[in-house]
């Protein structure tokens, strides 16, 4: 009995430092799961705006930026009213085209689901430029997956295995090292969290300050025109109201739309300046944005042009491959006809 109690005490003594080392290496979670730690207090309005702008950037494929100079609320109301009226006309034309195409075939009236009824989903809103700049850098340059891989500790090297059988005497048990001498490679607890307000996201955005192509435009009061999908027709209709330019983006006439020429609407439009856009994650200037809006037929027309180009490329490759064999066949055929004619002439001469 005494021997068993001594063995138990020795095993407890051996396991106690190991448990202490494991407890020291594992980080202690001091935050609830529903509220991870943030670089700045999440209850602040700036923090919530950062989350809102980051979500807007991730969910919006096409975003147009305007500089607004003290546009009044009544002027914003008039601008939104006229823009919504122009966008609904585009929806009506597309709905009529789909209705005519459905009678011709199953694929004739095909359209993207995100473009159906887009007028009510297009929004124009003002944002805080500084916070939007930070959100843009977080969305573009912060990669949570890479951050998680870099924060993991390195895997321990496997112990070498020996097959030597020279010594059969068992080696004495070795005690584990004490926690004071064991180097801990536990990751930083704050870098484990990868949400938009985390310290890792703040560090990634701070390191790329001023490097985004849209950074020179993010100065002064900013307004965003957001689209739920990429539609050149809706973009052309919106630009014809917010930033008209003849002939492709001509403003509506007074007879066609008298509300557009009201003094409040015109005063508000004079305070808007087109800066650029972000389309499918790419930065575009005003000229490139107008080139996108000038596409006739929209995405469907681009798809048709791509199909025609690919078909033409395939026909060109096929004709190039067949040209060598065809030329050889024509040469041999001509030589055969020539030899047949020579043989006939010789037979006629002998007769």
Descriptive report:
By secondary structure, the protein is of the alpha+beta class. 52% of the residues lie in helices and 9% in strands. The protein has eleven helices and five strands; from the N terminus they run ααβαβααααβααββαα. It has helices at 2-25, 45-59, 73-102, 129-141, 144-151, 189-192, 199-207, 232-242, 263-269, 286-293, 298-350, and strands spanning 62-68, 123-127, 222-227, 272-279, 282-285. The protein has a five-stranded antiparallel β-sheet. The longest helix has 53 residues, at 298-350. It starts with a helix and ends with a helix.
Strand order of the largest sheet: 2-3-1-4-5
- Level of helix content? 40-55%
Query: Which stretches of 5+ consecutive residues score pLDDT under 50?
Result: 105-111, 163-167, 178-186
Shape by Cα distribution: elongated
Tally of alpha and pi helices? 11
In terms of structural class, how would the helical and strand content be classed?
alpha+beta
Strand content: 5-15%
- Give me the count of strands: 5
Termini gap: 133 Å
Query: What does the radius of gyration come to?
Result: 36 Å
Largest sheet: 5 strands, antiparallel
Give the integer mean of the pLDDT values. Answer: 77
Q: Order of helices and strands, N to C? A: HHEHEHHHHEHHEEHH
